[in-house]
Design a protein that fits this description.
Mean pLDDT: 94
Helix content: 25-40%
Oligomer: single chain
Order of helices and strands: EHHHEEEHEHEEH
Largest sheet: 7 strands, mixed
Number of domains: 1
Radius of gyration: 16 Å
Distance between the termini: 19 Å
CATH class: Alpha Beta
Strand content: 25-35%
CATH superfamily: Gcn5-related N-acetyltransferase (GNAT)
Number of helices: 6
CATH topology: Aminopeptidase
Low-confidence stretches: none
CATH architecture: 3-Layer(aba) Sandwich
Length: about 180
C-alpha cells in the first residue's frame, strides 16, 4: 500500500497537539523565521500548545491545507507546508514552506513541495502553483529554480526585515511543467 503523502524522506500529515514543542523550538532561529515570513516576539509554551491544539482541532479543508512535514523514518516534525491564496475559479494556488534549521539541506523541502504539488494538480485539478520568495533567501531561490519553477516577476522593496528591504520574487509552475518533470 502506498500513500500520496509519503516520499522517501518525508511524510506530510496533520498537526497534532504534541507537535507544539518542535515548532516552538524552530522559532529560535530568527533568520530562518524571517526567511519564511516575519519575526514575531517570543511566545510562551502555553501559547504554542494552544496554537497546535487549535490547528489540530480545525476541520480539514481539501484545498486550504496546513500540513506538518515529518521525517519519514521516525515521524518527528521537521517543518510545515501550507497552501493559501487558493483561487478555484482560476485553478491557481500559492504555498509556503518552512523547515526547521536543524533539518536544512536534507532534501525535506523539495520532496514536501513535490508531494503537495502532486496532490493539488492530480487530485484537486489545479493548473498552476505560485510561491513568493524573499530575495535575501538564496537557498529557497535556488531550491525553486532546481525544482523547475519559473521566475515570473519581482515586487521590489516590498518587505522590511533585519534592517533592510527585500524584493519578493514570484515563482510559478503549471501542471504541464510539473507533469513533464515529475510524471
Amino acid at each position: 500500500m502506498t500513500s500520496v503523502w509519503v516520499g522517501e524522506r518525508v511524510r506530510l500529515r496533520a498537526i497534532e497537539p504534541e507537535d507544539w514543542e518542535a515548532f516552538l523550538g524552530f522559532e529560535e532561529d530568527s533568520d530562518a523565521v524571517r526567511n519564511g515570513w516575519r519575526l514575531h516576539p517570543p511566545r510562551s509554551a502555553a501559547e504554542a500548545k494552544k496554537w497546535a491544539t487549535e490547528l489540530a482541532e480545525q476541520e480539514s479543508d481539501m484545498d486550504q491545507v496546513r500540513l506538518v512535514v515529518a521525517a519519514a523514518d521516525d515521524g518527528r516534525p521537521v517543518g510545515m507546508i501550507n497552501t493559501h491564496d487558493v483561487e478555484r475559479m482560476h485553478g491557481t494556488f500559492a504555498y509556503g514552506i518552512s523547515i526547521g534549521t536543524p533539518h536544512h539541506r536534507k532534501g525535506y523541502a523539495g520532496e514536501a513541495i513535490v508531494l503537495l504539488l502532486r496532490y493539488m494538480f492530480a487530485e484537486r485539478r489545479f493548473q498552476k502553483a505560485e510561491a513568493w520568495v524573499y530575495s535575501s533567501n538564496e537557498p529557497s531561490l535556488a531550491l525553486h529554480r532546481r525544482l523547475g519553477f519559473v521566475e515570473e516577476g519581482r515586487r521590489r522593496r516590498s518587505r522590511f526585515a533585519a534592517g533592510r528591504y527585500d524584493d519578493e520574487v514570484l515563482f510559478g509552475m503549471t501542471v504541464e511543467e510539473f507533469t513533464a518533470l515529475y510524471a
